[in-house]
Amino acid sequence: MSEINLDSLVSLCKRRGFIYQSSEIYGGLAAIYDYGPYGVELANNIKQLWWKDLVYQYDNIVGLDSAIFMHPKVWQASGHIANFSDPLVECRHCHSRLRADELLAQVGVKADETMSEASINQLFDDYRHLIVCPDCGQQDFTAVRRFNLLIQSNLGDFTGSRSEPVYLRGETCQGIYVNYKNIMDSTRLQLPFGIAQIGKAFRNEITARQFIFRTREFEQMELQYFIRPTEDLEEFNRWQERRWNYYIHNLGINPSNLQWHEHEKLAFYAKAAVDIEYKFPFGFQEIEGIHARGNYDLSQHQKFSGVKLDYYDPVADETFIPHIVEASSGVGRVFLMLLAEAYCEEVLPDGGTRTVLRLKPAVAPIKIAVFPLLRNRPELVAKAKTIFDQLKMQWRCEFDDNGNIGKRYRRQDEIGTPYSITVDFDTLDKNLVTVRDRDSMKQESVNVNELVAYLSSKLN
Ligand code: GAP
Questions:
Q1: Which residue in 326, 311, 99 sits closest to 190, CA to CA?
Q2: For residue range 279-323, what is the model confidence (pLDDT) as tens digits?
Q3: 172, 222, 333: which to mutate for ligand 1, most atoms within 8 A of CB?
Q4: Residue 390: in which H helix or E strand, if any?
Q5: What is the crossing angle of helices 331-342 and 6-16, to 10°?
Q6: Contact between residue 110 and residue 167 where contact means Cβ atoms under 8 Å apart
Q7: pTM of the model
């Protein structure tokens, strides 16, 4: 794992059609990426597994798909307009815009992300003499100023005079908070219950240097779990355990590549906050945050909207504003983690090499590849097509008759396809195909009539 560098992953993603720079033919758009044919399959698998693990598994968790645009007051109530900012400095020499907390971290100084502009300026000035611009190597920086990350739009503003701009949402969970009452009213859910949502979020990130790790447009998977005020720590612990186990058992992450990061300084309303971090090629970094948020979010929305968001608990005969435990992760970060975890460059017994993505079948973009041994033998191609058409209704499959079989195996290894099936003359004579396992590279003869059962036992 430690030998994997980010460049190898970036290059594989481009070469094999996982991820492209957005608008590449126009020179690209910084920190925005497009997911190509295999990337969209992998991302969809990540989202489906998350959804199944929460919405399908728990009877008291329901889904939501709220709009990206929300009333401007949502962002006042949430505190994003006042506080959702990063500390920005500019290099006077090359004009790179950089995060002051990241520059301080490079010289071993920890800056708290919640620090005021004055405090972070003071800290930056104390260490200015040590800090070097990563882009040009000079040491000439402006003062630090707080830069708000919300992205404004001109939605519905036809004259350019609107005083309250509409923002692209900076996190998806606000859509959950403002729909909490609708969902309670239209379902029979009682505490504790959860609302899960997957969707796009947008942030004007200052630095975006780690491929899809930090982007300006990204997808979040957020669970908000509504609980009684006395249940904060119990549910917080329960969700920590569930989410940790999810990464190990459902996504196949090696536990030695995961660690907890406990927040030292909590937001004033929070009861507890931890992150699950993964050992990326650039070090341990957050993939998911689990936070006990108290009743801050619903209280704020009640205050700003004037609508009562409390809950009558028939068991205790009490009325209160529910507390929330949140589990929030990013599709792009989980995607990058899965690639880093699965990526392997191997020397083969014959001295050759191969790159293989050892993805769990559940996340692999393509589950099965089907090859006719020779593309110029119509009877082999026709038989391979029949098998492919049968399998593709059940699994995402790919048909490939291009190049020699060795090259076709290499292509599938690089995109992480767990099984490749070759249709040869034994298929025509004896109804047997060769199934090759991606990881062991072992080949097995399987009767065509037993193929679906064989693959089901391996893949499902
Ligand atoms: N509602 C809580 C919230 O949004 P966050 O820590 O800012 O908390 C949650 O974001 C998750 O969203 C992170 O753990 C990360 O996986 C993902 N995420 C946040 N900012 C991101 C960015 N700029 N690019 C990609 N993923 C991001």
A1: 311
A2: 999 999 999 999 999 999 999 999 999 999 999 999 889 999 999
A3: 333
A4: helix 378-391
A5: 100
A6: no
A7: 0.95
